Amino acid sequence: MSIRVRFAPSPTGYLHIGAARSALFNWLYAQKTGGKFLLRIEDTDLQRSTEESTRSIIEGMKWLGLDYDEEIVFQSANADKHRAAAYKLVDEAKAYRDFTPKAERDDATVKQGVAERARAHSEAGTDPRDNPYRDLTKAESDHRAAAGEAFAVRLKIPRQGKTHFEDLVFGPQEREYSEIEDLVLLRSDGHPLYNLSVVIDDIEMRITHVIRGQDHLTNTHKQVLLYEALGAVVPQFAHLPLILAPNKGKLSKRKHGEVVSLTTYRDRGFVPAAFRNFLALLGWAPADGKEILTLEELMEQFSLEHIHRSPAVFNFQENDPRHWTDEKALWMNAEYIRTMAIDQLIPMVRNELRANKLWREEYDDDDREWLVKTIDLIRQRFFTLKDFSAQGRAYFSDDFDFDEAAVSKNLKKDPQLRELLPALADALEQTDPFTAESAEATLRKFAEERGVKAGLLINGSRTMLTGQAVGPSMFEVFEILGQKRSVERLRSGVPWFDAMNELGDV
RNA sequence: GGCGCAUUGGUGUAGUUGGUUAACACGCUGCCCUCUCAAGGCAGAGAUCACGGGUUCGAGUCCCGUAUGCGCUACCA
Q1: Which one of A50, A94, A247, A371 is separated from A241 by 20 to 30 angstroms, measured CA to CA?
Q2: C-alpha distances in angstroms, A42 versus A15, A28, A119, A316?
Q3: Integer distance in angstroms from CA A172 to C1' B63?
Q4: C-alpha–C-alpha distance, residues A52 and A337, integer Å
Q5: Residue A179 and residue A162: Cα distance in Å, rounded?
């Protein structure tokens, strides 16, 4: 039987990076085994589910390159099937109607309430399965239901025994029945609940391997019981270690904001392949230890056996813009930007420049060669795609900002530059042909004649031409920018020095 | 409270059946290169493998306990 896996997010917000990793692992497993990767949107919580969230999930997956097979399944569309299955279990006496009135719960304190109730049970030694309706006669139950009394449907967990299943990551798992409450399958308003819905849908979709977050590990026992009650084959399970915040707490939007959202990485200039590569290394490592892996290598090397069991900390520093996300992710992105095939990089740069009105159609045409050369030159020290429009702006537009620190370090520091730079412009204007080599020869000769260090002129030029204190080899920059623009920008320097004199800070 | 899972340098990980100085990547420090900053090269700091007991000639690797963290324990997903 061929392998079928699925990613089943609930559309209650942006795509969380933990969820994105689950999607990735499922996808990789399908690719590796020649199986199918399906997408199911678990939108049964109508209050919290939004279409916008569904869109963002699909977008995020597309961005990561995770294409799914077959049609998307919307869980809400299957509610009738879920209900029918629950009623069938009632008929078979594997589930029962619970006529206990629904208890009101306060959303904000549910977690706490649940824990307290559980504590009370364990302290008092009462069995959570004790329920006056559990053993109601069929006639009585049918009668009350027919009379219109509201009821929830609960699965009848046997009194004695235990469940067990083999988790592909966490190994053999066991749980006493006495630790499992008779779980509610259907709410008293007829709404099917999570555990029922997943199981029915997974059966329906013929899922063979359920790969998901570890937060579902203990609940899996309930699901195993359901599969058995339904007479279905229990799939294989593989639970993934959780991704934690730096304080080893839960990584959540409420507390940590946009770092946990996949779209943030797209919006802040990540190369999809880089982020995908980084994500793959959270909780998994290839056998040979190689960390930069192409998609093909990931697909080939991925295996459930190498997923480990301890949670991974996603390392970032809140309130520090320089370390806004995991440094290794940032490093990996830079690595991809400077080493990936330039043809693959260009479309991303094009998007970035377009978004900032820096793109000219000639770049795809007459100026293609120039563009390739320029990108190849500047990408060497960029970390994100954003850098192309920020630090790299001066390469694509005459309208760029000057970095203040660069101006004071490379321009204002030496008053001689006021006169030297325009003079250098004159010399460069006479240089023919104008290439990196000839520009270098001109500049060095000029420096020698004036008795100044070449570095002074080089650094001053860099700031005049690019607005930056750092950047590629200056002579390459001269050539890239061309004679005309280089000369113009060197001459435009005068205002800097005028302003400097007015302020009297020479 | 109960049950479950985890615990290797700051972070991500390797250490498959117990056996030399615990390996790699990111980050950090210094040096080289150099027109700056990266990249690259070289060197280095940083882990008594959570702690305490055992088993053994020998344990990060096996056993027990403790601690800490996380998860689950809903008519949420």
Answers
A1: A50
A2: 13, 21, 31, 30
A3: 19
A4: 31
A5: 9
Give residue A498's pLDDT. 57
Q: Which nucleotide is nearest to A284 (CA to C1')?
A: B13
Reported as a single tens digit per residue, the pLDDT across A96-150 is 999 998 887 777 788 888 888 888 887 877 887 788 889 888 899 999 999 999 9
- Reported as type and span, the H/E element at residue A465 is helix A454-466
What local confidence, expressed as pLDDT, does residue A345 receive?
97
Q: Which nucleotide is closest to A190, CA to C1'? A: B75
CA A311 / C1′ B70 distance in Å: 8
Three-class SS state of A159: coil
- Contact yes or no for A134/A96 (Cβ under 8 A): yes
Query: In angstroms, how far is B59 C1' from A360 CA?
Result: 65
Site of tokens 């270098």: A440
Least confident of A189-203, A205-219, A310-324, A331-345: A310-324
* Residue A13, phi then psi, degrees to nearest 5: 155, -170
Taking C1' of B36 and every protein CA, the nearest residue is A470
pLDDT in tens, A92-101: 999 999 999 8
A274 CA vs B73 C1’ separation (Å): 38
Cis amide leading into A433 (omega within 30): yes
pLDDT, tens digit, 9 for 90 and up, residues A282-332: 999 998 888 999 999 999 999 998 899 999 999 998 888 888 999 999 999
Between vectors from CA A500 to CA A497 and to CA A502, what angle results, nearest 5°?
115
Query: Active-site residue numbers of A?
Result: 253
Name the nucleotide nearest A41; use CA and C1'. B77
Cα separation, A341 vs A344, whole angstroms: 5
Asked if strand B comes closer than 7 Å to A413 Cβ, the answer is no
- In this predicted structure, what is the pLDDT of residue A505? 45
Nucleotides of B under 7 A from a protein CB: 1-8, 10-15, 24-27, 35-39, 69-77
